[in-house]
UniProtKB/TrEMBL annotation:
<dbReference type="InterPro" id="IPR009057">
    <property type="entry name" value="Homeodomain-like_sf"/>
</dbReference>
<dbReference type="InterPro" id="IPR050109">
    <property type="entry name" value="HTH-type_TetR-like_transc_reg"/>
</dbReference>
<dbReference type="InterPro" id="IPR001647">
    <property type="entry name" value="HTH_TetR"/>
</dbReference>
<feature type="domain" description="HTH tetR-type">
    <location>
        <begin position="11"/>
        <end position="71"/>
    </location>
</feature>
<dbReference type="InterPro" id="IPR049484">
    <property type="entry name" value="Rv0078-like_C"/>
</dbReference>
<dbReference type="Pfam" id="PF21351">
    <property type="entry name" value="TetR_C_41"/>
</dbReference>
<feature type="DNA-binding region" description="H-T-H motif">
    <location>
        <begin position="34"/>
        <end position="53"/>
    </location>
</feature>
<keyword id="KW-0238">DNA-binding</keyword>
<dbReference type="Pfam" id="PF00440">
    <property type="entry name" value="TetR_N"/>
</dbReference>
<protein>
    <submittedName>
        <fullName>TetR/AcrR family transcriptional regulator</fullName>
    </submittedName>
</protein>
């Protein structure tokens, strides 16, 4: 078998397992999802799961990476629709928090993910998000829109606020009601960076 064909088959196997895991983790939760049922739904064996992801936790990491990339894309789309870079910055954070209402994200990313994989601020996707937020704040500082603070420090605080707000929304008894409060408070907090117009 040619190397290119083998690589394509491996990628297809990974994609099938991730699809099946997303469905199982979203519907049943990580703990209740059976590896045998999950691999059978993908038309594969447990061996394929172990070979590609190491174990069930490795598969969860892969699902979270995929979901995280989708969340980033949705939040950036909200940013890009805004009228100004500052409003885009606020909309991106608010959109991230609002994604906590999506059942799949709520269950996998915000409830099961931290319980199984630990502190979300240490996940690889969060580091990429931190770099992007830092760059956005640097641009806003350069434009004179926000106070000239340390951009990384500000990005860590803003991202931490958005992440914790999303975790709060996901774990609450009434996510829509909590969302409204969380987004309002997030906007107020982030607005502390804004320089007054002279």
């Amino acid at each position: 078998m040619a190397a290119g064909q083998r690589a394509r088959m491996m990628e297809e196997t990974r994609a099938k397992l991730i699809r099946a895991a997303r469905t199982a983790f979203a519907e049943q939760g990580y703990a209740a999802a059976s590896m045998d049922e999950l691999t059978a739904a993908a038309g594969l064996t447990r061996g394929a799961l172990y070979h590609n992801f190491g174990d069930k936790k490795g598969l969860l990491r892969a699902v979270i990476e995929q979901l995280d990339a989708e969340m980033v894309a949705k939040a950036r789309a909200a940013r890009d629709r805004a009228e100004t870079p500052w409003l885009g910055f606020l909309e991106e954070g608010a959109a991230y928090i609002e994604l906590a209402l999506e059942p799949e994200i709520q269950r996998i990313m915000l409830l099961d993910g931290p319980a199984v994989l630990g502190d979300p601020s240490q996940w690889p996707g969060q580091n990429a998000c931190l770099r992007t937020t830092t760059e956005t704040i640097e641009a806003l500082i350069a434009a004179g829109t926000v106070w000239p603070v340390d951009a990384e420090a500000a990005a860590r605080l803003v991202n931490g606020a958005a992440l914790n707000a999303a975790l709060w929304v996901a774990a609450s008894e009434d996510p829509p009601a909590v969302l409204a409060k969380a987004v309002e408070a997030f906007r107020c907090l982030a607005s502390g960076l804004l320089k007054p117009r002279e």
